[in-house]
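Following up on my earlier thread - several people asked me to post the actual chain instead of describing it. Fair enough. Here it is, all 354 residues.
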Amino acid sequence: MTRILAAGDYFVAPELFIDAIRDAVGETTDLDFSSLTLEWPLEPFGRVGTVDEASGSIPSLIDALDGVEVAVTQMAAFSREVFDHTPELRLISVCRGGPVNVDLAAATAAGVIVSFAPGRNAVAAAEFAIGLMLAAMRRVVTSDSELKAGQWRGDYYTYENAGLELDGATVGLIGYGAIGSIVSRVLRAFGATVLAHDPYANAAAVAADGVELVELPDLLRRSSVVSLHARLTPETHHLLNAQNLELLPRGAILVNSARGGLLDYAPLPKMLASGRLGALAIDVYDIEPPPPEWPLFFAPNVVMTPHLAGATRQTAQRAALITAADIARYLGGERPRAVANPEVWNVLGESGAR
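Reply from S.P.:
Thanks for posting it. Predicted structure:
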């Protein structure tokens, strides 16, 4: 009998995990499921204990993990304290692009394998980024709200206020992983020239996509639209800042649907007010939700959404399927596909799996 905790939420529900695992494993394996429902996204995620972007309380998670060998989750806070109270835990499968809500060092020290689900929301996030670009470039959101307020903005058809097209534009993508590569494919279908900056990208693969891999200053100087798709790390925090934002052509469009910490928002209100920055479209913030007095609420030409890029039903379904497949591999004595701490698997091997 293998005890499995499905720590879901109101996006990827526990039942979605459980059904996917049962389908992946089959009826021949004896499984005992328990469930826990976290309040995300009805309550914002945040820092819990030693981990970020997490939901729920540590005591409730520890209680739910009693006797559990395998846990599957999106947002549960696997903080350092959790591993001190869960000696039977052997696998945490996180249905996100990275297991940021797991204290990886503590999991590794405790001999717990941590798997994750790269690419689970790539299509959703890529489509959303394109939507943000178009909304900012063609004043879709601004003109909608103004028209509903009784304003017919005929001046948006004047040459100086007219929008921009993607066809013929140069668009710079910062980050060229699963999401960035899909965004580039759509942009090239529109007729855009695509530049990319990603120190980890395979240059030959990027070139084969018809995309030019460049250094960040070159990308900023040449791009009329810049879209962020990098992971947030200590090295990428405020990757775009007051100094290098000045490299952008006047009137450029900036899109951030990746992580708020990649972008220094402080200089943007002034850049928008002066026209130095043509428009800003953002789905992510340094503080979520941002405080009511946040200056960008009052800046011109800003499109904002409340961290929705990955919010599709297909993303939730895909997340459950990816993690279920990894749990099936583990139960069959195989290595999960994406493991954040492979050294644990290397030590445990098949004997650690079952």
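The chain is about 35% helix and 20% strand. That should answer part of your original question.
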